[in-house]
Design a protein that fits this description.
The complex is a heterodimer of chains A (about 270) and B (about 350). Chain A is α/β, with parallel strands linked by helices. In chain A, about 35% of the residues lie in helices and about 15% in strands. Chain A has a single domain (about 45-260), classed as 3-Layer(aba) Sandwich (Rossmann fold), CATH 3.40.50.300. Chain A is built from 10 helices and 8 strands. In chain A, helix 8 (about 185-200) packs across helix 9. Chain A is globular, with a radius of gyration of 17 Å. Chain B has 2 domains: about 5-185 and about 220-235, Rossmann fold; about 240-350, Rossmann fold. A 7-stranded mixed sheet of chain B has the order 3-2-4-5-7-6-12, with helices on both faces. In chain B, strands 9-11-10-13-14 form a 5-stranded mixed sheet, with helices on both faces. In chain B, helix 4 (about 80-95) links the parallel strand 4 and strand 5. The chains are: A alpha/beta (about 270), B alpha/beta (about 350). At the A-B interface, loops of A face strand 1, helix 2, helix 7, strand 8 and helix 9 of B.
């Protein structure tokens, strides 16, 4: 049943890596080489340790599921890596954030870095100084949860030079095609470009996180996957995996499914 | 129409556009900022107007202007910002202008906090600004209702020529749920009073709330309250949940009603017959159903995210027939289902 086991998730990939440096030096729009759409990956054979990047960033449209995905990804990463830190760079969303899961994460030995005032009554978009440690201390594997849209990605800008210099990162575009303003690959591409401009780091991969909360079906995920493939041919980046709530993940006839657990609050009743 | 996954705040904005609103004026404040952000993205693409005013006071007066011209218009804010708008809201009411004001409530008083609250109930339902007036006040309890009640609020505002308020809270604004968006509609209410240019064919219309002759101002107030009576008779909406055989009746709206439903399920599992009245319109308040229920139940529990505001309307409605207790959290906190269950058990056990 462990189809698409997350151990296989990270993939070696083609040509985008070189672009990171170009992006850094020119400090503007990423200059992408014209290239054929990246092929949708076949089950890779690499061992886990060599495929996880030192820094994994989750960015995307507001409400696409970045936080849930980042939390689950960090937990997965921790299974094979000693030191894992998850950092919340979200200065946009006042309510739902990685800090909601900090107790769980800390109990697993995952370090967490959140804005000091997250989940409090202080509406202050300030980021803690420990964040520099996250990008500069290369002995830890880091998962970065970026705020939604370009507005959320601005916070990434000051850390971008360190990440680009190290050049061992995966910048993941989290795609949920059930969100009203990104229902088409073209709209998603527009958001991708806005985020890259704001955050200063080019995307390197796409993840299909298409969901309708508790109404998500296999069809929802599969439709999202098809749109991710279209987005992939538009931007030349590979689709890394599809994520789905654990009970649904097993039913999907898809390669590379990442089963996730969803952090719910008690008033989210159906 | 396929469902999409939306934040409550986004659902308000998209539903307003589909209800024919092409003018939005606002000023950002957590936890409702997504309404403005969504409008900023969408309005320019559909020939509408998004304008971030220099303050909430400017925004509400821009609403006055567009409404005077007979067009659907809205503003949104959160508690402190809605306080700033009160003068303008009173002027809208005094000029019999339809408009939608959205309040995604946060903790107060003062600057308070950014977490959810329902402590603007008095302000919303009892007037809020100066003078004798009411708003129709709708309280959504899901992202779907954020969309549906936005449309409903525009319709009621036009139908009765009075401002309407959507009274949500931070959780409703921020939570994401699947939603089926309403179809685009063309609103067809005739507005012969609107300032649309006389073309030299009619007397000019005047939109004003100033009356120099006290007899005329009195008459205007009396007429307005006749209109309010009609609204109270015809427009009450409420949801009943497991009420038929209930011994204990919980009264709650918005997020508090969702928590209460969980508590009622748990109470039923323990053999306690609990039920719920969820006012969807807070004004007009569902007084009749509460009055009738008072004959059947042992008591009422008002579950609120305030120090006890709606409880006063519950007491007025049930006319002291049965005890009414309060179960609440404030300051941005939300009652847990366990807390509500305990209140139900206390009432059932005669501990109140």
């Amino acid at each position: 049943m462990q189809r698409g086991c997350p151990r296989k998730l990270p993939v070696s990939r083609s040509p985008e890596r070189a672009n990171a440096a170009a992006f850094a030096s020119e400090g503007g729009e990423p200059h992408r080489q014209e290239q054929a759409p990246a092929p949708i990956k076949q089950s890779p054979k690499e061992a886990v340790d060599t495929t996880f990047k030192r820094v994994t960033l989750f960015a995307g449209h507001y409400g696409s599921g970045k936080t849930n995905l980042a939390v689950n990804y960090a937990i997965e990463l921790k299974k094979t890596h000693d030191r894992v830190v998850i950092a919340d760079l979200d200065i946009v969303n006042p309510y739902f954030r990685t800090k909601d899961s900090s107790e769980l994460l800390n109990s697993m030995g995952i370090e967490t870095v959140s804005p000091e005032f997250a989940n409090s009554n202080v509406d202050l978009p300030a980021l803690p100084s420990e964040l520099y440690g996250v990008v500069q201390n290369r002995h830890r594997y880091a998962v970065l949860d970026i705020g939604g849209d370009d507005r959320g990605a601005y916070a990434l800008g000051r850390f971008a030079p360190y990440i680009l210099e190290e050049n061992d990162f995966e910048m993941i575009y989290v795609a949920n095609f059930c969100r009203p303003l990104t229902q088409s690959p073209e709209e998603a591409l527009e958001v991708m470009r806005e985020i890259e401009t704001a955050g200063g780091i080019p995307f390197t991969a796409i993840v299909n996180n298409s969901n309708l909360a508790h109404l998500t079906t296999a069809e929802t995920v599969l439709d999202g996957y098809e749109k991710c493939r279209e987005l992939s041919s538009l931007c030349g980046l590979p689709v890394l995996f599809s994520s789905a709530e654990r009970s649904l993940a097993g039913q999907l006839s898809l390669e590379n499914v990442f089963p996730i657990d969803i952090q719910k609050k008690y008033y989210e009743l159906y | 129409m396929a469902k999409v996954l939306m934040k409550g705040n986004e659902a308000i904005a998209e539903a307003a556009i589909r209800a024919g609103c092409r003018h939005y004026f606002g000023y950002p404040i957590t936890p409702q900022t997504e309404v403005a952000a969504y409008m900023a993205k969408r309005m320019p693409k559909i020939g509408g107007t998004f304008l971030q005013a220099e303050s909430e006071i400017s925004a509400i007066n821009m609403v006055y202007g567009v409404s005077s011209a007979g067009l659907r218009v809205m503003t949104s804010s959160s508690s402190p910002g809605v306080s700033l708008k009160q003068e303008g809201i009173s002027y809208l009411a005094g000029s019999d202008l339809p408009a939608l004001i959205v309040n995604v409530q946060r903790g107060g008083p003062g600057l308070g906090g950014i977490q959810p609250s329902q402590s603007d109930y008095f302000q919303a339902t009892k007037g809020g600004g100066h003078g004798d007036y009411h708003l129709t006040v709708l309280a959504p309890a899901s992202v779907q209702e954020m969309a549906d009640l936005t449309v409903k609020a525009f319709d009621l505002a036009d139908k009765y020529r009075m401002p309407a308020m959507l009274l949500a809270d931070g959780t409703m604004g921020q939570m994401m749920e699947p939603v089926e968006l309403p179809e685009d509609c063309v609103h067809t209410v005739e507005k012969p009073w609107a300032l649309t240019g006389t073309q030299g064919k009619r007397e000019h219309n005047i939109i004003n709330s100033l009356y120099l002759v006290p007899e005329q101002l009195e008459q205007k107030n009396l007429e307005r309250y006749e209109k309010y009576k009609t609204v109270e008779q015809n427009e009450v909406i409420c949801e009943e949940y497991m009420l038929d055989d209930a011994d204990v009746c919980v009264v709650a709206f918005g997020i508090a009603a969702r928590v209460s439903k969980n508590a009622i399920t748990a109470a039923r599992a323990k053999g306690i017959k609990a039920g719920l009245i969820r006012p969807v319109t807070l004004w007009p308040f569902p007084s009749e159903i509460i009055k009738k229920t008072a004959d059947k139940v042992n008591g009422f529990i008002s579950v609120e995210l305030s120090m006890g505001q709606m409880i006063e309307d519950v007491k007025l409605a049930e006319e002291c027939k049965k005890p009414v207790t309060l179960c609440s959290r404030v300051g941005g906190m939300i009652p847990t289902p366990e807390q509500v269950l305990k209140a139900i058990e206390d009432m059932e056990g005669g501990k109140i």
